[in-house]
Amino acid sequence: MYRPPHSPSAGFTLVEILLAVTIFAVVSSILFGSYTKTLDNVEATDRSIHGYAQAKACLERMTADLTSLAVTDKTTYKPPATSLSDNDPWRFEGLERDGAADMPRLKFSSRAHVDLAGDGREGVAEIVYSAEKDAGDRPGYVIRRRDTLMADLFEDKDRPAPILCDAVKSLRFLYYDADGNEADSWDSDSDGSGYATPRRVAIFLDIIGPGGPDGPPVHFETQVELPVYRDKPEGVS
Fold it and tell me: Which of 12, 62, 182, 232 would you call most buried, defined as having the most Cβ atoms within 10 angstroms of its Cβ?
């Protein structure tokens, strides 16, 4: 019986199939790795954009609050009889470290009240900036801003303190007196400050960068010249 010779186009050999599978696996691995890296880059970019926007908004809010600072005039101001009584309700107090968070805390009075309740009320408010460890699974700290009208200050209820910025790595305030001397803390009800308020406040904010908590942070800073202030009252030694 006649049998036609084997035609090369009749099929693939085992070696050819294995070679094709190997090439496909290598190409797929390269494409998948590039795709994964692209997604990681997109996610890191989104985090960076979010962080930049939050940090910018945070510094703008602090600047608006400080440039609307309210202080007790030196002609009517009276130093407290003790450190625990008769404190100035419009006191300017900056703590270098506050509690377990080991982050600064800043409290002052401002006319830049934000009407979160929607009741249309206006007036001087006590503004408090504080930082705490993020309660979620995200790294870093959150900065909170509490805004309480002076008329409500001594009411017995908790005041909301909305988050102003998250993914914060560090926060620092510096306070400058009339001669340009700087301090890490300030208390306008203390003889250490001459019962005066600062003339200028510098704000330094570091947020977690694209490299994560172990990578280099993204740094922001600004300085705010205070349009109102109180110099050392007359008759104070």
Answer: 62
